Amino acid sequence: MEILRTENLKKYYEQGTAPVKAIDGVNISIEQGEFVAIVGTSGSGKSTLLNMLGGLDRPTEGKVFVDGKDIFSLKDEELTIFRRRKIGFVFQAFNLVPVLNVYENIVLPIQLDGNDVDEEFVNEIINSIGLSEKINSMPNQLSGGQQQRVAIARALATKPSFILSDEPTGNLDSKTSQDVLGLLKTTSAKFRQTMIMITHNEEIAQMADRIIRIEDGHVITKDGAENA
After folding, report:
1. Which of the 8 DSSP states describes residue 151?
2. Ordered structural domains, the chain, with CATH
3. How far is CA 146 from CA 121, 160, 189, in A?
4. Could you tell me the mean pLDDT of each successive run of 10 residues in the chain, 228 residues long?
5. Rounded to whole angstroms, how far apart are CA atoms 193 and 208?
6. Among 89, 116, 149, 200, which residue has the fewest nearby CB atoms (within 10 Å)?
7. Quick one: 185 exposed, middle or buried, by C-beta within 10 A (0-12, 13-18, 19+)?
8. DSSP of 153-199, one letter per residue?
9. Where does residue 78 fall: left (phi above 0), alpha (psi -120 to 50 degrees), or beta otherwise?
């Protein structure tokens, strides 16, 4: 089943006399349960694409459909609610709330939405990521790898349509990076969660089920031919 689709997605910025075409006519489709890596060098447009897939930035032109819903047909407040309910985010900066413990950070998005916490599901996630003995710890008492695990658990806990992961190992050492990537892959499979990971690292991208390459704002195939 298709979870995410873009149609002729474009993002242009004014710079001097000519517009910068950060994203220029991108068409992609992602199925439920896929673990997809979007790969590109710095300046390729991958972060701009992520921001639009996640409803964080509106396109110049084109559409993004999540579960069949054109998300940019929503007003800003509606889009904020939709994003909180339907899209999980994992960033390299972790973005944990320093005054909340591990458990409180994980369930915060659920509580912000006014929903009851599915305790059994949340505990299953916590056990799966190996943090059952750290649920009362504060973020500053955790290692970088542990903080990223909390961020992953927080994204999973809301049962989103998909999770966007932006350079999730950017602030981690090599060994911890491998552990976190393995965790992303196993948890996405265990919880049948669609995962979209943005990275510039080819080795990291190889862990995904499928790789989408982006260059100069266009999606390309592995042999460099533009993908219509």
Report:
1. H
2. 32-61+71-220 (3.40.50.300)
3. 19, 22, 20
4. 94 84 94 92 90 95 95 95 90 89 94 89 89 93 91 90 86 79 83 90 87 92 43
5. 13
6. 116
7. middle
8. HHHHHT--SEEEEESTTTTS-HHHHHHHHHHHHHHHHHTT-EEEEEE
9. alpha
